[in-house]
Prior knowledge:
Layout: H1 3-8, H2 22-27, E1 35-39, H3 45-52, E2 56-61, H4 64-77, E3 82-85, E4 98-104, H5 110-123, E5 124-135, H6 156-161, E6 167-180, E7 184-196
Parallel strand pairs: 1-2, 1-4, 2-3, 4-5
Antiparallel strand pairs: 5-7, 6-7
Amino acid sequence: MNSKWHERFLGDEYFYGKEPNLFLVQAEQQLPKGKILCIAEGEGRNSVFLASKGYDVTAWDFAPSGIEKTKKLARDRGVVVKTELHDLADVVWGEEEWDAIIHIFGHFPPPIFERTMEGIRKALKPGGFYVSELYTKEQIKYETGGPKEVDNLCNPGILLGKFPDYFIQHFYIGEVERIEGQGHTGVAHVVQSIFQKRVPH
């Protein structure tokens, strides 16, 4: 377990707020109703939002305190979110299991990023969606959130290269304003993706 994240989520306050990521709110309209996985989900703001829209949602995080906050937020909002404690460094990915996988500001060292992208490709059903908003390496200059280690920030070209055979519904690199609790506040530099796994003919 990563104690930094466990400690960050221990307090009553929601470090990244209780409201969903704005890009996810826009992207949700494209998603098929079905089984959705939110990875590196933190305190549950995005999974709880999706559950409120009628999706069958599972949230993964590796901080026990984050999982508990997700459960509490789901109870408070009157929705059901399945929660699972997983470390993406060693989680076992299923095959063609999810209609969508949501990846909002989950940043990892390069080996875990590589492993996670492989897992996502394997675990999406044909026709399924990968939806992400991640800080780019430019974010290090903005100081409005995200990791302080530049290697853990996203290289958009590398991300795009992980999904060469997917339909690109949306791909944006640039500035956005994000007010998400105390953790993300101000103008940031992000890469946004909506990639759809092609259905074999």
